Amino acid sequence: MSDLPVCPICDEGHLHARSEMIEVEHAGHAGQIESLYSECDECGSETATAAQMRDNKRAMIAFKKQADGLITGADVKAMRQSLGLNQDQAARMFGGGPVAFSKYENDDVVQSEPMNNLLKVSKRFPMVAAYLAREAGVELKDHSHLVASFQSRSYVSSALGSNLSGVRESLRLVAVSNSDCFELPDEEYQHAI
């Protein structure tokens, strides 16, 4: 007796997992994704199991995210893990509901543009992540890397570009909330401008 599922078409053969690369298009972007299906060894019928359909949907959503310039599920997961958060803590910090991060990371849904922007800003400016964590009552595993990256020259100078008028004094103190200020050391301040 075989452990393979019986073909729902002929009820005699067994289904064997197969895959193929297919051409897809979204928002003017073309690409290829892996499409999963099963083939009967008796009648040759092709069908997709529930798990294969779920995986095919996830592959298409991941492609759409990439085509739309959104953070992919794998990148959302990597970011969450780099902050030392579980999915529940990330949802409390960033919002989206109790199972939002499971859905984002598995490419079950496309995160909203505002959520995507919040994630991008938090990744680019780690002090935002630290602030959101504190506001949500979530303890990050390691705060020191957030403070260190906040004080790095690259984040400040690239954010300024060539327009320096009126920003010198605003760089002196970066207000995170009414009660929390983070001062750029003089050396960092001088290199930033």
From TrEMBL:
CDD domains tied to this protein:
HTH_XRE
What is the protein's given name? Answer: Type II TA system antitoxin MqsA family protein
HTH cro/C1-type domain location = 76-132
Gene3D superfamilies recorded:
3.10.20.860, lambda repressor-like DNA-binding domains
- Which Pfam families is this protein grouped with? MqsA_antitoxin (PF15731)
Read off the InterPro entries from this record.
Cro/C1-type_HTH (IPR001387), Lambda_DNA-bd_dom_sf (IPR010982), MqsA (IPR022452), MqsA/HigA-2 (IPR032758)
